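Continuing the series of single-chain predictions for the mutant panel. This is the parent chain; the variants come on the following pages.
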Amino acid sequence: MGFHMLTRMTVLGSALVFLVGPVAALPGPGLNGTTTELIPVVGRLFPEPLMTNDYIGYFEAVPSLEKLARDFPDRVELFKVGKSLGWENRITGQRDRHDVLAFEITNEKSPVPFGEKIHLVFSCSIHGNEKGGREGCMRVAEDFAKGIGLAAEKPDLVKLLDYMVLAFYIPNTDGWTHDEPQYYRGPSGPGTSLYTRGNSNGTDLNRQWPTIGYVEGTRNHKTMAEPEIAALAPFVKDRYTNVWYAIDIHGMLNPSGAQTTSPVSPACAQSPANCANAVSAWAAHPGKGHFLLGLLSSAQLTQDEFVRQTRMAELVRERTKDCPGTLGPTWCRAPSTGGWGGTFSFWGTSWETIGYTSSGSTSNFMMSPTGLDAPAASYEMAYNHQVCDGVYTGCGQYMNEFHVNIVRKMVESLMEAARTDFRVSLETKGVRTAYLFNPRVVSTAAGNGDPRPSGGWSDENVLDDRWDILHNVYAASPMEYLRDLARYVRDGDKPGVFVELPAAQLTDARLAQTDQLVVAGSAAKVLDAKHTELIAKWVEAGGTLVLTDESMQLLEAIGAAKPGSVQVVAQYVGRTEVTDYSHALAKGLLGYSRQTYDPVAIGIQQNQAPVWFVDGGEVTGKGAVVGIVPPASATPRANLGEVAFGAGAIRFFGALLPDPSLEQYTPYGVADYGVTYAGNQFFVNMLGFEQVYQAPPRVLEDAGSLRKPNETRGAEAQEGSGKGIRVDDESTPAVGALGLVVAAAAAVAGFHLRGRRER
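Parent structure:
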């Protein structure tokens, strides 16, 4: 028995009344410090959560993953990407640094080259105390290696490994190993949080990635300052070049949106029995909350990527709408079944779901054009943040089963989403649209007149040189959103009309050939009084004018709103609150649909996002208010709506395409736009376009080409070379006699850490 197991004992949490047999019969996870698998009864290196006596420890995971890679070289590949910062060993006095792990599941015998396969990427527990991600990811790897678990339940998924790569990485080794006796620095007791959110330096590794947009100046935002992300960022960037979907798996303390604070966490800090009783008592509470939240990232997406992102979120929601575990209907079902909680799973942006956004996060990097450039989301699982750290049997078992099965559902959902190929089009129905050219471009090029931050951490750090503005020139223009959209328009079986119109070509004759004109962002600044007069006459004659952001000031200039009625207010993010979901401008909304653009991606600090609106009482023509900027009032601050003007109409949207900014410290440039899934849907509705899909979709059935029809992403990928275990640094030392001595000393000098799960 290895030192990780010396103090592990278990006690049954009786109040949950889910008996799994005699406690002594439950095996520990992993190889238990030996060279052979000692758990033939359950047949798993990583037993199902109800069939083991503890969470998977780092020193159990490494040899187990190595064994999977050795035994199944055509299915599993293990990478030791770099070393963690490490903890000081309180027995030896030395700093122990451990491998940062990544592992892949695919069919190495497939004729499809690695670079042409669809890559699905999962970040597993970047916060060490949110343990469900790594617990689930390792079990999924064993499922597909051995044809058990998810692979046995869904055999069709195994066939998809001919065309897909499931890529998992566990970033936070320090947060994971902190519960080992020789590293633990906290107080004792069954309710203690034994894992840590950050690494041993206290740094949140989820603020360490080189991403476009605003980067805060605190220690946590000294990008790639910590060795874990310094190693992982180039690894995932270089290896995964055809990423279709990516998920960053997290955990939250209580179900999000609960009306009051759940008493479950403090009760679980006392004992298994108290934990179980608290779960049962809280089950009947009327507070509503979501047990699984999808946090969609925002960056620069094309039309098919917007669809893929929401498709991913909807599929995960559908697959997890019921509690995926034996905790059952007593406490994690919707109110209609008599249990506690709202809709089990829901999604939106980070701000829509948890109330804030950030920069430098994993999902930012997954989404960033300079990162994985993929539709991405973070997922927050309830009761997966400190809860049951110190009490596994009873409390931990059932919560862990809950989380592991959710991870399986995520993997299943992404594989199902990626198995169909489709082409998104925007049907114009014959409407001819022109959009006014906006010459505004911000650039990090020297001498262009825009602020170019220097002297910050990025200048000192050589590890981020492939991304930073000292070694790359970044330029951004909100016009790129309209240009990207133009690639998708069609009129039946012909190309649609969606063209760029410079102000110099804005004439009566040109407008006569146009059904609707888009003036977006700050584009109205290029118009003079003559242009404004032309546009006003054209709208009065029956044209449709579409205005966004500060170009809403044209409402005043052409007489559709009274002077001074169009204003701007700073908000945390670009947003609108829909007041009329039956209106055509609100058609097809999914998720929360409140945030319309992300300021971080375009270099604008949170709480400084410009949102334009018109005083609803000052609009001169008859119209409709569809969205407002809170607070609500008798004369609403309308930022989404339309107004009649003569025989024509004006549609306006005050939060979509503000100019990118370099005024903040943005060492990795800024995006052209940060439009969210909701912002894009609102704008497509304003244009009167309809999203359509090529039918029937192409289903992966043979080893044909997998290139996406709409785009090419990134450079040609390198083909996978070699099989089994790949080590980019020295191997983790084996657990042998010295390990046993260290463990024994730790047990005497301190307390029984593994015994914490018994009390």
